[in-house]
Amino acid sequence: MLYELRRRVLRGNDPESNVIDTRDDDPTTRHFAGYAGDRVVVSASFYLATAPVNPELRSYQLRFMAVDFDVQGGGYGTAVMATAEAALRALGAEQIWANARDTALGFYRATGWTVVPGSEHVSGETRLPHSVVVRRLAEGPTTTS
User: What is the mean pLDDT of residues 58-72?
Assistant: First the structure.
């Protein structure tokens, strides 16, 4: 179900595009989903990975954050993110990070993430503008330089 949502929302439903990460089945990976009734409307996958900022911190990379079109802006993404952050914090995560689509930066900023200055790039997978975003889960300021 997560792959279907990933493909539909993040890849324009292109059957040829890859929505599978080789780490999907890794025992350290955590997948989160949000439901409207029995339908998956949000996906967020977190992979244990060294971050490009604060690399000394135990970090998880967020990939494939997708909210179905008809529920965007309804709080589902925020709720899944809060659940994921609490679960990852309980696993000892100190920081989460992502390569976020620039069109989604408002969401990330509103949920406490920081855009890393100078991190703008075009994704090789989607060919869309992205920026690195980071959120500290542990106490202390986030260093982004």
Answer: 97
Provide the whole-model pTM.
0.92
Q: Would you say 80 and 32 are in contact if contact means Cβ atoms under 8 Å apart? A: yes
Q: Domain limits of the chain?
A: 2-136
Kindly state the tokens that stand for 114.
Answer: 């920081």
Under 8 Å between Cβ of 95 and 56? no
Report how far residue 44's alpha carbon sits from residue 63's, in angstroms, rounded to the nearest whole number: 6
Q: What's the burial of 97, exposed, middle or buried (CB within 10 Å: 0-12/13-18/19+)?
A: buried
Please tell me the predicted confidence (pLDDT) of residue 85: 97
Q: How is residue 23 written in tokens?
A: 């780490």
d(CA 100, CA 129): 9
Given this model, what pLDDT does residue 143 score? 54
Give me the CATH code for the 2-136 domain, please.
Answer: 3.40.630.30
